[in-house]
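Open question from group meeting: does this chain pack into something compact, or does most of it stay loose? Before anyone orders reagents, we agreed to write out a predicted structure and look at it together. Recording both the input and the output here so the notebook holds the full record.
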Amino acid sequence: MNVHVQIKKYAMFLVLLILVVFFSLTTDAFLNPENLFNVARQVSMLGIASVGMTFVLLLGGIDLSIGSMITLVNIVAAWLMVNGKMNPVAACLLALIMSTALGFFNGLVIAKIRIPPLIVTLSMMTILEGLAYIICKGIPIFGFPKTFAFIGQGYIGPIPVPVIIMVVIMLSGAVILNNTYFGRYFYAVGGNAEAAKLSGINVDGIQCLVYALSGLFAGIAGVVMLSRTNSGQALAGKGFEFECLTAVVLGGVSANGGYGRISNVVAGVLIIGVLSNGMVLLNVSQYVQMVTKGSLILLAVGFDCIQRYRNSR
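Structure tokens returned:
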């Protein structure tokens, strides 16, 4: 295998290892098992939502509505349980159906009307954020059944339930990409949509499917977040789309579409979690953290563009 491909494949795992070693040496609390489980629990929602963002980027698109989708699911599920007196399972299922349908709508508008994904999902981000405020009037919703807390706060053995959900979702994403014809279609459409269409692939249908899956995974992340915080918040998913984008691009998924692996996205998600946790333990300013994360995504996209340029020569 080409040396450059090998480097690109394992570079993020090396970065993750360097970060773990650095924070282990600079703070005593980092390697504490309780802290490591806390890191895993913190990144679980990011990991779940990042699978949907991975699919979208593979198509050469982008989904900026993920954060607002999480917020709306948060508020709708909370409202149904508290004000609608609905069973938690039914409330969560309805909220997930809603997020999947909204994601499908994003894909439909992009595929049929040909509005750029950036504009469609940016508009949807604003719409959904406004809807969440209208429903809750900016006031937190709480008072859920105690059993609902198990999703976000429970354990199976020593492992937090959100981590188990994240692992299941990421494995499902890997299976879809590596072992189904849908996965092959995702790569084909992202690599060259026109060639994919000439090959008989329903490009519009694939776009609708991918954005629907993005909505579904964002919805699952929203349910986990609601259970963990035990309160429906109007700002629950604020900025989450950029966290997802950073993790996915760090994981080597090409911002131009057609290339990426879920296994590397796992590394990207863990890098974000370890970096955030380590900087908090070192009392690094929140604003410095923002600069660091922004710089990371710029470097990751720059690295991808340089690699593509070299390969095309």
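Observations to bring back to the group:
The beta strands are 155-156, 159-160.
The chain has a mean pLDDT of 89.
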